[in-house]
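Lecture notes, part 5. Sequence design as translation. It can be helpful to think of inverse folding as translation between two languages: the language of shapes and the language of residues. The source text, in structure tokens, appears below.
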């Protein structure tokens, strides 16, 4: 008897696709689940950049960032707002906010410039969409990426239709392809449920994202889908795979989804190098009983030799 429902992953990626290896340049945008996958890529020392403007939950925010990057926008003072003794930008997550106006301006312009360069050089762009719900700042009639805890009465809450999301995703792909025609796109939907919107509202939101993405994906044009959401909902489908808030996937779930992603998208020729890096990472995390012991010093010396060899041979830095 089989007590689980496995997702047939081999249906999602053509055999001829350019998979991720240690020559790949990976750029990730999107919801907090993007950070989970980014952390895994970082652990195994792949070349990656994650959310240069912080976590972005909806497609309009990602489209806006990519539009600004491709157009090489220069941020100015009127792109920022002062609230709660801090400067914010509606196009970026609060983690970029700063008490210094000049510092935030510098960060925004530095990050938009680096995003442009990364878009040109990326071999793979991974976009994780979290929600179809957006907030429109009434004062300027613009959809924001983050409300920065500004009173909700200053915003209108709207649900993007599937058609609006399709337009946004088409725009993202067209913009990137205009400067980097050969990159692979991987779209996925975050398994994190946005229950603050309401249970039915969250289901509707995810449905709009799924309906839109499946109108855009076209493997022959290097546009793919990875079923993170389906793996969480239909394969794992148990609260033991959630954190205490019963909303976010726990470490076991993230590891499982990563293994599924790896089986589809990571080149199998990297497995030996990944295993070696994993051994080194576990060695670096090891906490000895006696740091000054001869045995531990020998262990550290061997570890350093391994890291130095990988730095010289593979350009991998720890």
């Amino acid at each position: 008897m089989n007590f689980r429902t496995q997702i047939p992953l081999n249906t999602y990626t053509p055999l001829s696709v350019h998979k991720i290896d240690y020559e790949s340049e990976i750029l990730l945008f999107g919801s907090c689940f993007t950070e989970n996958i980014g952390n895994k890529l970082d652990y195994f020392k792949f070349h990656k950049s994650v959310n240069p403007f912080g976590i972005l939950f909806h497609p309009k925010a990602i489209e806006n960032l990519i539009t600004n990057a491709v157009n090489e926008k220069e941020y100015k003072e009127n792109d920022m707002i002062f609230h709660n003794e801090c400067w914010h930008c509606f196009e970026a997550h609060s983690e970029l906010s700063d008490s210094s106006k000049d510092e935030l301006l510098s960060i925004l312009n530095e990050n938009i410039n680096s995003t442009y360069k990364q878009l040109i050089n990326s071999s793979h762009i991974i976009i994780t969409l979290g929600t179809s719900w957006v907030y429109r700042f009434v004062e300027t009639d613009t959809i924001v990426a983050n409300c920065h805890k500004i009173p909700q009465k200053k915003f209108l809450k709207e649900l993007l239709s599937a058609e609006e999301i399709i337009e946004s995703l088409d725009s993202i792909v067209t913009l990137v392809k205009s400067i980097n025609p050969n990159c692979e796109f991987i779209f996925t939907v975050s398994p994190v449920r946005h229950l603050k919107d309401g249970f039915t509202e969250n289901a509707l939101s995810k449905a709009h994202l799924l309906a839109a993405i499946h109108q855009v994906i076209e493997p022959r044009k290097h546009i793919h889908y990875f079923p993170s959401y389906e793996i969480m909902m239909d394969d794992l489908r148990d609260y033991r795979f959630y954190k205490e808030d019963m909303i976010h996937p726990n470490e076991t779930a993230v590891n499982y989804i990563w293994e599924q992603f790896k089986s589809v998208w990571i080149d199998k020729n990297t497995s030996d190098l990944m295993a070696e890096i994993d051994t080194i990472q576990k060695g670096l995390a090891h906490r000895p009983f006696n740091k000054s012991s001869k045995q531990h010093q020998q262990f550290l010396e061997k570890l350093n030799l391994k890291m130095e060899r990988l730095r010289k041979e593979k350009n991998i830095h720890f």
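The translated text above is only one of many valid answers, since several sequences can fold into similar shapes. Residues 9-268 form a domain with the Rossmann fold fold (CATH 3.40.50.1110).
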